[in-house]
Amino acid sequence: MMSIEKMIYLHHAPLTSIMQDGTVSKRVFADYRERILSDFCGDCDLPKPAFAKDEYGKPYCTNIAHLHFNHSHSQSDYALIYSLTVQNIGVDIENIHRQVNFDGLAKRYFHQDEYHHWQKNGYDKTLWFAYWTIKEAVLKASGIGIRMPLNQLNAIFINQDSGHVNHHIGKFYFKQRIINDNIISIAYPFEYKDRPIIGCH
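RESULT FIELD:
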């Protein structure tokens, strides 16, 4: 059995359970993220984590160098991933009922292979959000954010809910889950593709 340190963890929660005074904000998300990570570190006999931001505004743990994490939220839900061994991890979440200009955004931001696959699948909305969240998660895992054209990334599915993206920024593996009408994409370096994703909540 793989030890707790080798897992990648996914925490999910509806926004209604996170809200303070009926609202959410960056501070509310940060407080919630820090509470979940503090509980996790306590379970692992690690000190309470302390946090700071790097020059790009990305939060990191100052006293547990091997604690890595990333979070995202949709209009309705929140997702947090964390690991003690896998450094470059990214997550993105979108509610599949969100209304956007699907074809216009796909023509602009999808790789041509992704666009053709989306066409062949009848312009399926869930597949659209699958591609979109993969791109966001991979860019977050790579550490470069959205500072490159999204249409350069080509997500290749190995099966229904996982696959890889191979680009000069790196080769990343992705896994997806659908929870409460939200699609969650988790990306991390391809060499860790056999690491299980443990859904805590």
